Amino acid sequence: MNLADRLQVARGEAVPTVTPSAGAPAAVPVPAQRPAAAPPPPPPSDALNRLKDRVGKALFERMGSRMNDPGLSEEALRTIVLGELDEVVDEEKVPLSSDERLRLTAELADDVLGYGPLQRLLDDDTVSEIMVNGPDRVYVEQGGKLLRTGSRFTSEEHLRRVIDRIVSRVGRRIDESSPLVDARLADGSRVNAIIPPLAFSGSTLTIRKFSKDPFTVENLIDFGTLSPEMAELLHACVAARLNVIVSGGTGTGKTTLLNVLSSFIPDGERIVTIEDAVELQLQQEHVVRLESRPPNIEGKGAVTIRDLVRNSLRMRPDRIVVGECRGGESLDMLQAMNTGHDGSLSTVHANSPRDAIARLETLVLMAGMDLPLRAIREQIASAVDVVVQLTRLRDGSRRVTHVTEVQGMEGETVTLQDAFLFDYSAGVDGAGRFLGKPVPTGVRPRFTDRFAELGITVSPRVFGVPAQAGAWS
Prior knowledge:
By secondary structure, the chain is an alpha/beta fold. Helices cover 33% and strands 19% of the residues. The protein has 14 helices and 15 strands. The strands form 2 sheets. The chain has a 9-stranded mixed sheet with strand order 9-8-10-11-7-12-13-14-15, with helices on both faces. Strands 3-2-1-6-5-4 form a 6-stranded antiparallel sheet. Strand 13 (398-410) and strand 14 (413-423) form a beta hairpin. The longest helix is centred in the first third of the chain and has 19 residues, at 74-92. It starts with a helix and ends in a 19-residue tail after the last helix.
């Protein structure tokens, strides 16, 4: 067993015993329900902790400037670190069992080459979010529930070192002059860090993980997030180039659903994505990914989402996908939707479709254009065709609870009509999981006329009509 395999064993990971033949793609099964995570390892003894601190400091002293040498590849750096680590452990001359030595080596290798005590959590596919509230309080979200883990950092300095490692890899910085930052990991996971003096209880780190293999619409149907009928309707909406807003609270799965909706865009179209930190994992070939930029140390050089939305209009996009509307860029987005850029997609934080419309009104006002409220509502009613509402229920599951058509204006009010609603009447099972499901309201949306013009067919059962009826109600 080589050193890399021994480190896997020390972390409690399985070592593969079968190697696929050359050129054969590895099968990646996607279970309908993810297995429960293994319990965290027991906390190390004080003696092993003290030894780890000593060895860690000695290792960092020996490595010196080589830690940040841009000429070293990750593999070359790993080889050097593991070699130095073996020498430092030998020099300490502390009697260790083979298991303790492997564990010490694995944890220190994670500290130097990975993300310290977070590495095991990052490698765990059942963990969807990691929340660090100071050096000794690390929480995770698993299956929609928050749990405290046995992982901890040795000190505030240790936590800061991991944060610096994360943000420096994407060209960001964090210090007293810029004490909060949004960044991302190499796998696309979203990171937010905030340090003292803004974080009173110690440096705070939040990591929103994303699946290595993006979820498909079949996965969301298996999870119960969507029904097959709802998926068929949304597929038709994207194919018909309707403008869709995905609405929901924090952690409801808006980005995941936006990824799935974007997968319905035909391959022959040019897609421009605009995000604060790149998260979307579009599978099409012709995609231009734009990311905003914060100001530099002099407070200059910032490029906002609004700047990127305006610039994207000059890039001949067939579709514009904005990761999240949260400011004045909402006005530019609505104007783009109203001036020929049909089929655009975005998300907004709101608790219902009606709230999403009100939220868009507020965001447009943030553009500072001093527009009358009726003019803003007319822009929204004309631009947005569909609002898809996501909700995280008490059992931790994420469900689409509304698919709502924006029909237009009636007096001073934007009129909405639900095509699907979540039925809560079935109650919960013995495990506390909701048994309800989304059901069609039976109302035929007006945008189905557009489906007919474009030759897009939708099964009558999508709107709650039996297949043998052969017509919509």
